[in-house]
């Protein structure tokens, strides 16, 4: 093969690869990342005790291909706790590192990796582990479908 033909072939492959990448939307979920989306906390146990949420309180978690953010707000839409940052997902291990947030306990978690076992069954995400402060958590999140 002549040098000109090789250069042409390499250029052609580069153009095809670039065109394929351009077709993929920016921020699109990586194949197999089952957590990307919006989730609503439906039940929780902290330190083995069932958590009771005040009526009208909602907690949502938004997961993008590289970041997470959760927010808790009351019936009037007033936010009283939130945190977010980067995360990793490998097999059934989900690890998030809060980098920003609001709430009385946020300072104790900022910059510290929080590691959990996770399992997704249908539209439910089972999230359990121990926070860096030693508190055990068992949470069930339900996927929020677009309207």
Structure report:
There is one protein chain. The chain is mainly beta and 147 residues long. It has a single domain (37-143), classed as Lipocalin (Beta Barrel). Helix content is 14%, strand content 48%. The chain is built from one helix and nine strands. An eight-stranded antiparallel β-barrel has the order 1-3-4-5-6-7-8-9. A hairpin with a 5-residue loop joins β4 and β5 (79-90). The longest helix has 21 residues, at 3-23. It is globular.
| Basic shape | globular
| Residue fraction in strands | over 45%
Give the mean pLDDT. 83
Strand segment tally = 9
Low-pLDDT runs of 5+ residues are 1-30
The SS-based structural class is: mainly beta
| CATH architecture heading | Beta Barrel
* Rg measurement, Å: 21 Å
Describe the structure concisely.
By secondary structure, the protein is mainly β.
Mind sketching the topology for me?
Layout: H1 3-23, E1 37-46, E2 49-50, E3 58-63, E4 67-73, E5 79-90, E6 93-102, E7 114-121, E8 124-130, E9 136-143
Antiparallel strand pairs: 1-2, 1-3, 1-9, 3-4, 4-5, 5-6, 6-7, 7-8, 8-9
What brief labels describe this structure?
eight-stranded antiparallel beta barrel, mainly beta, 147 residues, 1 helix, 9 strands, 14% helix, Lipocalin, disordered N terminus
